[in-house]
Design brief:
The chain has about 190 residues and is mainly α. The protein is built from 7 helices and no strands.
Length: about 190
């Protein structure tokens, strides 16, 4: 009779662990989805400011047409991105192009004094910082989920319920890793 209680107790413990493990994986997966959604929201906010930035600097930076086209192209790529890698690639191109635009603005005193430009610059810098933090948070949540999916005995629950590891939000292509080109010889005083 005692043997039966021991078996019954073990089955109850296993069932409790299965429920706990499954709920833990669901919670982690939801945290990853939320963290990714936060990145997406911030990227949307940044890319919503791009047309305003382009129209503000267009009159001053007539010779940096490629730079302005690059930021517009990055916005289009982001809007059409369907994977995390495509999203990350468009994000990196936009970040580098924005840095180039702000660096190039140093050569245009009238632009540097323009209130619209200053406000856009300040807002974009704030969003860039938030995006960097959101990327870190997303990657931490992905690491936690992936670790739980791969560790024993949670991996048994993950396999049974078909949980899959997630991709990190990182730069993959060589093009994105290139240093932005700033053409100082084309700048007029």
């Amino acid at each position: 009779m005692n043997f039966l209680y021991i078996i019954l107790g073990m089955l109850i413990l296993i069932a409790i662990y299965l429920v706990y493990g499954y709920n833990r994986l669901i919670g982690m997966r939801n945290m990853v989805d939320t963290a990714y959604s936060n990145i997406d929201t911030l990227l949307q906010k940044r890319f919503d400011l791009v047309p305003n930035l382009v129209s503000t600097v267009k009159g001053y930076m007539k010779h940096e047409r490629e730079l302005l086209e690059e930021i517009t192209r990055a916005r289009s790529e982001w809007m059409n991105a369907s994977t995390i890698q495509e999203n990350a690639g468009a994000d990196d191109v936009a970040s580098k192009t924005l840095k180039s635009i702000f660096a190039m603005a140093e050569n245009y005193p009238d632009l540097k004094a323009n209130q619209n430009f200053l406000l856009l610059q300040e807002e974009l810098v704030g969003i860039e910082n938030k995006i960097a933090y959101a990327r870190q948070r997303y990657n931490r949540t992905v690491m936690s989920l992936n670790t739980a999916i791969e560790q024993f005995p949670t991996n048994l629950i993950a396999q049974f319920f078909r949980f899959e590891t997630r991709e990190f939000f990182e730069v993959e292509s060589d093009k994105v890793r290139e240093v932005p080109q700033v053409k100082m010889d084309e700048v007029e005083d």
